[in-house]
TrEMBL record:
Family (UniProt): Belongs to the cytochrome P450 family.
The protein's name in its UniProt record: Cytochrome P450 E-class, group IV
Any one GO molecular function term: oxidoreductase activity, acting on paired donors, with incorporation or reduction of molecular oxygen
Keyword Metal-binding: yes
Organism, as annotated: Triangularia verruculosa
UniProtKB keywords: Heme, Iron, Metal-binding, Monooxygenase, Oxidoreductase
Organism lineage: Eukaryota, Fungi, Dikarya, Ascomycota, Pezizomycotina
Cofactors demanded by this protein: heme
Positions contributing to heme binding: C456
Keyword Iron applies: yes
CDD domains: CYP7_CYP8-like
Amino acid sequence: MSLLSSTLLLFGAWIIWRVWRFTLSPLIRPNDPKELPYTIPFIGHAISLFSNSTVVLTKGWRNLSGGDRQPFALQAAGTSLHVISHPKHMAEVFKNTQNFSFQGFVLDILKATGISPGAIAKTYDLDPAIVDSKVDHFNYPKKDKHFEHLNRQLHLTQLSPSSQNDNLASLDQSILSWLQDHLTIQNLQQYSLAQDSLEVNLYSFINNVFIQAGEHAYFGPALSKLHPNVAKNFQIYDELYWKDLYQLPPFLAPALTSIKEKLITQFKDYFSLPREERTAQNPSWFTPNLELTLDALGVEPRDKAVFFLMLYFAANSNTPKLLFWLLAHLLSSPPSYLSQIRSETSPAFTNQNLTDTTYILKPGNCPTLERFYLEVLRFRSNSISARRVTTDTVLPAPGSFVLRKGAKVMIPWRVFHFDETVFGEDAKVFNPERWEHLPASARGSVRPFGGGKSICPGRYLAEREVKKAVALLVRRFDFEVLAEGDGWMPVGDDSRPGVGMMAVEKGGDSRVRIRGRE
């Protein structure tokens, strides 16, 4: 067969596939979400999603979803993704936990991260009654639930405000104490990019300092003493983590695989230390209890290290970014805002130390700080919620759309944060003053922490940590922006939806000079 004949044959087959996929198939299944056309079979939108998912999602909403927010479908390497944006459809996804499984999504991520099939069998696949019989080291309500629910219960016990325990307050105080000890001009000089003054790239600086604070809170000083470069290695991993989120195979993500293995080895080394050495100065209630749980279920050391790498990620991926964006927008705003925040937070301080730890969090005490916090969550979060469809399911009205078993549901929250019907005609502009006039219900349209039963339990700690850190930073330091005009503002990377706050675009960090304040 000649080259021309082969080419014509392949082209003919491609035309047949194209007609079937995007013309005949929708006629046969008219209630399935419309699929955004693509060129290469199987690959679908995978390459576009990996390079800039925002462009793909925007194209889908513009061409398929219409003004009534109909669901639409994408195809990525053989996986069907249903993108949901109507409030009633989202409510059904969160309410119907049997048909829309969060556990399925979690398992996909755990497997991509490196959890072995054996560890899955000992945790998520294990009969809930067996989990109950093995785990008796703390007061867990034994209701025949899977490890997924037990793990979340551990998180909630650590991170939820409660009059019954002070676990959240203890963790919060640990982070604040570490920051008050380390945020000095002398100590911060190690991060300087200049010889004769303290000059830093703001994004890198915030990450370097505040990831260490989170590490100390969850793992005590033992981890950094054993491996001082864990925080730096994590920053590399954090930049590449989206490849695990999209479940790229290792051969397509060699840099991610390499740094991940380094971190797993470092966590294995940490857990090989005597338990008393690790827990002696560890303020976290969660860390030792999760370790006891995994040990009781017979999880092997390498898999245990992966579980705790995921804990490290959850604790340190988003909060430093949230703090960075709040500080960056504050420094890019008229100086009066900075003066207002200093004035509002001043009653919480004795000299340079934050001593009244509840003052800043009380409603009405720090309105400017609160508005900046809410606006940064709205403007700079880039999170998604995801579920796996376990059985063919008809969504409630509007429409009668059918989501097929095996597909994944994707809810990109960022699109709602720019809804002009909620946030006004200037929704695409950063404007903290909007929160002075918006109704309280508008806060429900900002979902940086996801939604439903899987909403991030760390949201309370994040708010406490960020607000106190901003107050402490502007109390102790002056920040000089080292750029002319409007060119200083760091550039955000909104090309890939993730699990929280957006990172800075590569090469988009911005420099500041820091001076101590009397």
